[in-house]
Design a protein that fits this description.
The chain is mainly β and about 90 residues long. The chain has a domain of about 60 residues. The protein has no helices and 5 strands. Strands 4-3-2-1-5 form a 5-stranded antiparallel β-sheet, with no helix packed on it.
Length: about 90
């Protein structure tokens, strides 16, 4: 059974920017991605991913993780971008 969203947690929706960590990535590496489709019943999301050279590629039914993008725990999954506070 797929993970269900936790209360008060961001929910994936089409067009949201996320980070995808490829299975074969180097430590700390992750790719920019956009949610293209939210699969029903917690079946993950389809992503439009862009590699570091700007080449797009699709990833289907990708699960979400709470692990930071670029970590071993995040391989093959997508994560919300880390919050970056504004400079003051």
């Amino acid at each position: 059974m797929a993970d269900q969203p936790k209360p008060n947690r961001q929910r994936p929706s089409v067009g949201r920017a996320v980070h995808y960590t490829p299975n074969d990535s180097k430590p700390g590496e992750h790719h920019a991605a956009t949610i293209a489709y939210v699969c029903p019943e917690g079946g993950g999301c389809n992503l439009a991913v862009v590699d570091p050279l700007g080449r797009p590629y699709p990833k289907l039914r990708v699960s979400q993780t709470d692990a930071p993008a670029g970590t071993d725990e995040a391989r093959g999954k997508w994560a919300w971008p880390a919050f970056v506070p504004p400079k003051t």
